[in-house]
Amino acid sequence: MNENDRPAPQCATLEVPVDWNNPGGPTFGLQLARRTTTDKAARVGSLVFGPGGPGDSGVYRVREGVGRFSDNLRRHFDIVSFDPRGVAGSNPVRCSAALLAKAPSPIIKSQAQYDATIAYNRLLAKDCRKHTGPIFEHLDSLQTVRDLEAIRKALGDDKLTFHGSSYGTMLGSQYAEEYPQKVRAVVLESTVDHSLNTREFLNTQAESAQDSFDEFVKWCGRTTSCVLHEGDIRKLWADLLARADRGELPNPRDPKQALTPYTLSFLATKFLKDPSWPQLASALQALETSKPPVVEPNTPAGLGQNPMLVFCQDWNLPVRTYTEYARHQRRMARIAPEMKYPGGLIAVSTCLGSPLKVGNPQHRLDVHTEIPLLVTNALHDPVAGYNWATAVARQLGRHGVLLTYDGWGHGTYNSSPCSKALIDNYLIDQVVPARGLHCPAVEPAS
């Protein structure tokens, strides 16, 4: 029997308020999924998984990707997750697909492009509000923290056992702020630092992306599994960025569309997240010999989902003029010569001129839990950098412990047997790892 099929997933809908500040107002259905423990006699309780993104489906994770969790965890816990509000089955943010297809590049080169981005963002917000309904104004993670508390109560657990990944770590850390007495154990894997201003947010993103690219280059220099030569990679990358800027680089997933410098960088980051270094090297080699695409207009019909707008309610990242935006871009290019267009750039550009209220603005964490939160991060993470993890650990003080995986990629649990064992012990038996503990790097498979 396939491990994903034993026991079978259970699905449910939990009615919660659209706005927790008005609990007697309209409600919507929050979608949940659960796989019960494989050993009822060993059951500790429920382990709630906080999906990342924003935009990842926790229901899909439980239904199709429960193998993420060790047999040991599945023996002791019911594995539970959910689609956060505005995502997948939980009243998703819907917008006109044709309008989404016209999204401007986050790389802004002129005052006219800056003005056009603001105009587009305001038009898109109006369109998405029309097709989504009133939840559109209540997507921030603090509202989702209230959803998480409702899930705990519905499960019947006295305290919450939680494992958040990437953007889902904001739920874990803010839940611990709001409900410290209800925390049994909270893991923050690939941690988001929700205390940064615009400059700090972009700088740390650029530093982390560049660090992972540099690690890829070093790997190519020490292995025969890389189809590229270490000394040629940076020149090849610069050539590919230039071709993408001229519209001459085909998108491998859709050869009738062109890669932009941002989407090329995004493509590379996806490989760096695993990390899938051999595949990245092969992809770059294929792009080097590719022919310019014959671009066909992309005008999809109907509605598409757009969970990215949660950024505009979680982050206040103002850029008041084109001159200021250009200054940010120049500074990132100095910090990260190859990865000067990190993923975080789109969070800033998406929210330029946004009419949405920031319901959950950045702040330093103020957590006072009985058991320390477990912060765990790879030393070389291209998305949620180690710089974020160390900052969050400092904010938590004695109420947090940082477990470092000395390797690569976005995530630690399934990258390192050492990390997995320590995280499992923390979640199952509440054994907190020693402070300053490091797990050795595991060389990515060739």
TrEMBL record:
Keyword Hydrolase annotated: yes
Coiled coil: none
GO molecular function: hydrolase activity
Chain ranges of the Peptidase S33 tripeptidyl aminopeptidase-like C-terminal domain: 349-439
Family annotation (InterPro entries): AB_hydrolase_1, AB_hydrolase_fold, Pept_S33_TAP-like_C, Serine_prot/Carboxylest_S33
Signal peptide annotation: none
Keyword Ribonucleoprotein: no
The entry's keywords: Hydrolase, Signal
Domain spans labelled AB hydrolase-1: 47-235
Similarity field: Belongs to the peptidase S33 family.
Name of the protein described by the UniProt record: Alpha/beta fold hydrolase
Organism: Kribbella deserti
Taxonomic lineage of the native organism: Bacteria, Bacillati, Actinomycetota, Actinomycetes, Propionibacteriales
